[in-house]
Amino acid sequence: MEEPKLTTAEEKADQSLRAPGTKSEQTRQRILNAAAFVFSRKGFSRTRLSDIAKVANMKAGSLYYHFSSREELTAEVMSLGVNYTFRTVQNRLENLPPQTDSITRLRTAIETHLLCLIERSDYARANTKLSGQVPRNIQVRYDASEAEYGQIWRKLLRDAVADGSLRDDVNMSAIRMFILGAMSWSVEWFKPENGPAASVARDFSEMVLNGLRAQDR
Amino acid sequence: MEEPKLTTAEEKADQSLRAPGTKSEQTRQRILNAAAFVFSRKGFSRTRLSDIAKVANMKAGSLYYHFSSREELTAEVMSLGVNYTFRTVQNRLENLPPQTDSITRLRTAIETHLLCLIERSDYARANTKLSGQVPRNIQVRYDASEAEYGQIWRKLLRDAVADGSLRDDVNMSAIRMFILGAMSWSVEWFKPENGPAASVARDFSEMVLNGLRAQDR
DNA sequence: GTCTATAAACAGATAGAC
DNA sequence: GTCTATCTGTTTATAGAC
Questions:
Q1: Which are the contacts of B32, defined by CB distance < 8 A and separation ≥ 6?
Q2: Is A197 on the interface with B (CB under 8 A)?
Q3: Less CB within 10 Å around the terminal CB: N or C of chain A?
């Protein structure tokens, strides 16, 4: 279901997505994978526990041996999703050479985030799709992570404005949301037929960065 | 609930949103407005008929005098939403001077579409938010309108590439979805505190158009 | 651990009084 | 036209056999 092709650094960050030894743990994992798969495609209201169970090759009632409620299962999928994207982007940024310029850092973040969504992870897609659809008590659980993740983006943009790479005469807070939103919405439309993920990601980052680049005038 | 500030041309296009004479029609309208209001904020699964009824100052059961089912009500809200945005954008484009250049046309479409979402219409927001959340049998009803609307955008971009205003070396189909997606996602975050709608819209269109502009080199 | 069968909960839909 | 009360259907959740 998931073919992450992760680098070593990310494999470590991604341990939570892997099944430890026991059979029970593996099944739990299979259920989570199934849930991420279905949620990312159908959203919250169109997803029944029986849909998830079917993909996981079991009956709906059996899910309760592994999860106490639908809410619990949903929350865990979402949590894995935010964390996956968060850590993957953070990792890529940390692995860049120390003096990497602010534009390259931004480009890296954009393309990595987008690739998580369109190419890598049902969890990332599920989290994005579910955000804004799930009951409030689920949503609040990961609001903090989302906010923390947002800080990375704030900083990336702030730094690029500060060093003169990006123009300083725009509402960067709104622009940040447009950038993240454009990527989020990819969950609704991206399919492999739309082209190689890497090239789609590159076209997007080019548009954004050229569009915001400070003019020398 | 709705303060459209429409030009004459758009008022005409917007007749369906206005209440004709009878009391029953007015109530029906009040319910639709309430539904658009709630749906646009809570999405499909978090919205109960009782929530809509409350905003419309009535009890849930009474809704059935005006609508045969939740599905019917939802479908009508969505239909009004697509049509509103569709016609508003189309109208603005038609009212441009005939020789308007392709970039200005594109900018007009982008800013108009975005303003429909962030400033003007609960119906536009509801439709956007609900898309991808509602049951399939509702979704299919307006798939055709959405596709037709997409054609406007295809043409705008195609024309701008054809006359050399926009670069021709990108996957314009993906770019189109990124642009529309960025705007769609505004439903999730835009609040008046984010700044004047017109200026936010301008910042966005500037980024996009500068980002895609053909380089003279 | 997973199944089948069943209970409980909920929200949409209907009936009939006013 | 709108209300209250009730019914129905669906889905989550539980019990108990295997």
A1: B73, B76, B77, B80
A2: no
A3: C
